Amino acid sequence: MPGRNALFVPGPTNTPDRILRAMHRAMEDHRSSSFPSLTRPILSDLRRVFRTEEGQCFVFPATGTGMWEAALANTLSPGDRVLASRYGQFGHLFIDCAQRLGLRVDVQDEEWGTGANPQRIEDALRADANHEIKGVLVVHNETATGVTSDIAAVRRAIDAAHHPALLYVDTVSGLVSLPFEMDAWGVDAAITGSQKGFMLPAGLGLLGMSRRALAKRESARCARVFFDLGDMMTANAGGYFPYTPSVPLLYGLRESLDIIFEEGLDAIHARHHRLAEGCRAAVRAWGLSLCATEPTWASDTVSAVMVPPGIDGAAVIDVAYRRYDLALGAGLSRMAGKLFRIGHLGDLNELMLLGALAGVELALRDVGIPITFGSGVAAAQDWFRATAAPLAPRDGAGSPDAQTRAASPSRERMAVVR
Fold first, then answer.
1. Is residue 389 within 8 Å of 350, Cβ to Cβ?
2. CA-based Rg of the chain, rounded to a whole angstrom?
3. N or C: which end of the chain has fewer CB within 10 A?
4. How far apart are CA 378 and CA 374, in angstroms?
5. Cβ neighbours of residue 386 under 8 Å, at least 6 residues apart?
6. Distance, CA of 26 to CA of 31 (rounded, Å)
7. Per residue in 342-392, pLDDT tens?
8. Ordered structural domains, the chain, with CATH
9. Whole-structure pTM value
């Protein structure tokens, strides 16, 4: 099919041309004396993204799933007890990882479409008088349901219970795109990957660890080889890795960090919120609803859109892809067939999202959902116009002479045109 595939899954996200060009390079010696000039600034700059002064950041040739394992295995021992909230498929898989490592998991199930319940977490920790619970596991942004949890509130709950449990946070689809404060929120292990807010291909696992968490390495008895942070810390100190890194992805990460700092994290967060509000306006105009049960839960990186009874959400996704070259996210686990997901994160602007919304409208009508063509697109357009930043005045643009000059190219400009 001609043209570019419209990628609107909640990860992997669109990779900017700048990053693609940065990764397109010949292989090099990752043991050379010049290699640390690439790696050391990356490891330092990642702390700015995680928003940590005291923590340490790690980069593995892995994914977010690998970082679940690394965070748990380097701080806990088989038989240790942890408390975990489950309100979506990725929370479920985080729990599964912990159980496979031999940990005992107290699961707090919440309604899918809601998030972590700080009061229930506090109550469970208060009841743990002997402090058997060693960690609390939560997902910051549950991609399967389009829900964002209040991590700061979870930390307040742990502190209110006067409990020493570590706080483990999966922020795979949150970091960069959503506000995240590792130090201010007291996060001990922040887990993410390269393929979402960092706008890279999948293949890098990124991990932020607090000093308190790293201090647990000596007593932790979970088996670890590839994910041993001790090996990584020793090699990283010299600007190297204990095994072969993905050199092209490291160059891509360097470019990604440059792009992030050029726009600014606060501006990125504001952009994602504005785009998400436009998407949510479209969903309302279609007469559909989100999986998130309350507006306060709704994610700014992905909208999980419920389909009417009798309609298969998978059909919307299939038609959108095969007929219009639009990639949407599927419903996972218990939400399979009940929804489709529109990812709106990473390298994205208004016109890109409006095109996707137009494609969604085509697919919705094709599968028999009686929406009005243009209704969602128009609602999003109205929102984007109402919230657009005012244009900065052009130099001398207000004067008639300036307008004439703009309309009539000078002889010098005409010469260049010729």
1. no
2. 24
3. C
4. 6
5. none
6. 15
7. 999 999 999 999 999 999 999 999 999 999 999 999 999 999 999 999 998
8. 17-262 (3.40.640.10), 264-387 (3.90.1150.10)
9. 0.93
